[in-house]
Specification:
single chain; about 140 residues; mainly alpha; two-stranded antiparallel sheet; elongated
Length: about 140
């Protein structure tokens, strides 16, 4: 993905410049914090790591992500993407675990729901899938 190459190149250039011209500059701080439920969020916001990574994987630029989530500074978006690229295996494992937990909770809710609630949920799930298909075209 050209976007990955750009971000990696950008980080390499910054690090090379820093090492050669500014040896006393502090390293980049990753603005992530884990909340009481184990969810990784961008520090001082409600925005999750999941959302930033998903938007990046969908091809959004850091600027577009920032526009969609103005509470996350552009520099924090770049820092989170850099963290993801440097720790892809660990972040992907975290995201898979979040998906598994979300599915478990969904099944638990559906098991305890009335037939009417289940039918309504299925109806909205189909509508959401239809909107995603329409947006993809």
């Amino acid at each position: 993905m050209a976007q990955n190459a750009f971000v990696v190149h950008w980080l390499q250039q910054i690090m090379m410049y820093r090492d050669n011209h500014m040896p006393d500059i502090p390293t980049l701080s990753i603005p992530l914090a884990t909340d009481e439920n184990g969810v990784m969020r961008i520090r001082n916001t409600r925005v999750t790591l999941d959302v930033i990574v998903a938007r990046y994987q969908q091809g959004d630029t850091p600027e577009a992500i920032h526009e969609g989530f103005p509470s996350v500074s552009l520099s924090d978006v770049y820092a989170v993407i850099a963290y993801y690229l440097a720790n892809r295996e660990d972040v992907d494992a975290y995201l898979r675990q979040r998906d598994i937990e979300a599915e478990r909770i969904r099944q638990e809710v559906e098991t305890n729901s009335s037939p009417e609630t289940t039918a309504r949920t299925e109806h909205f799930r189909k509508l959401a899938a239809q909107k995603r298909r329409e947006a993809a075209h």
